[in-house]
Amino acid sequence: MKKSLSYLWPLTKKFESHYSGKLEVTWINGRKVLDSANANYSYGALQEVLDRGLAEIRADREAPVLLLGLGGGSAVPLLRNKYGYYGKVTAVELDKAIIEIAINEFGIEAHQPLALICEDAELYVKSTTEEFGLIIIDLFIDLQVPEQFFSIEFWKNIAGLLKPGGKVLFNAGVNSAHDEQINYLLKSDILGIHFRKKEDVYRSNTLLIGERS
Ligand SMILES: C[S@@+](CC[C@H](N)C(=O)[O-])C[C@H]1O[C@@H](n2cnc3c(N)ncnc32)[C@H](O)[C@@H]1O
After folding, report:
1. Is the pLDDT of residue 174 over 80?
2. Closest ligand 1 atom to the C-alpha of 76?
3. Could you tell me the distance, in angstroms and rounded to a whole number, from the CA of residue 7 to the centre of ligand 1?
4. pLDDT of amino acid 8
5. Which of 9, 129, 164, 171 has its CA at a distance of 20 to 30 angstroms from the CA of residue 26?
6. How far apart are CA 97 and CA 20, in angstroms?
7. Which CA distances in Å does 27 have to 6, 11, 39, 71, 136?
8. Is the predicted pLDDT of residue 190 greater than 90, yes or no?
9. What confidence score (pLDDT) does residue 192 get?
């Protein structure tokens, strides 16, 4: 019923997040999306951006996947239903309120095997001993990627968690917001991750696609 009515006018539920401020879950044109004040966090444009990156990545579909930044979890049905990844997905999310939205509004727990971890991604990559075939880094507070996710230390930790031949998809910024940090990262020697940059994805985002040699 809500889905049908959403073709006539959007239906919105509001949530408050300690980290991201006001969040909205909206049924619009038969689809449910999660938005912060200025950005689409899940489903909607964000999912289109991730889809265009995943379409260019050939990773081991059986190997575990790490998703840093859960939001409503729109990457997970893409991985499972469109690209056929069937290994365990570990999703790390700082914000408990957002994990609850992913569970209660977007049914994320249907996509097993799945581990949902409420932790700062920067700390998680320092301490975990698991290895992954694909790591998706999709960490935003509203429109900004927090500064620490461009640091060499963070990327060395990421390199250490990738299986040989493992792939990385980094949603690195909207428009030219982080150009300087992205170019610095591309010039740095990060333990054998080779990157290529894909700009203006869905007319807005910059993606870095990386492979560990
Ligand atoms: C664009 S949303 C992620 C969307 C998601 N990947 C999807 O598939 O729909 C960005 C997320 O990054 C999370 N985030 C921001 N900083 C973080 C941090 N330090 N550690 C973990 N998550 C963080 C935000 O709370 C937000 O849920």
Report:
1. yes
2. 8
3. 28
4. 65
5. 171
6. 10
7. 6, 5, 16, 16, 26
8. no
9. 84
Residue 79: CB atoms within 10 Å? 23
Rounded to the nearest whole angstrom, what is the distance from the C-alpha of residue 2 to the centroid of ligand 1?
Answer: 27
Atom of ligand 1 nearest to the CA of 67: 6
At 35-83, the pLDDT tens digits run 999 999 999 999 999 999 999 999 999 999 999 999 999 999 999 999 9
Q: Dihedral of the CA atoms 89, 91, 97, 100 (nearest 10)?
A: 10
Residue 87 in contact with residue 63, Cβ under 8 Å?
Answer: yes
Mutate to test the pocket of ligand 1, among 49, 123, 128, 140 (most ligand atoms within 8 A of CB): 140
Helices (H), 80-134: 96-104, 121-127
For ligand 1, mutation pick of 41, 99, 147, 158 (most atoms within 8 Å of CB): 41
Q: Which two tokens stand for residue 28?
A: 């619009």
Q: Which residue is associated with the tokens 């927090």?
A: 146
Domains within the chain, CATH numbers bracketed? 40-212 (3.40.50.150)
CA–centroid distance, residue 13 to ligand 1 (Å): 19
pTM listed for this prediction:
0.96
- Ligand 1 cavity residues, CB under 6 Å: 19-20, 41-42, 46, 67, 69-75, 92-95, 98, 120-122, 138-141, 146
Q: Which residues contact 130 (CB under 8 A, 6 or more apart)?
A: 64, 66, 90, 161
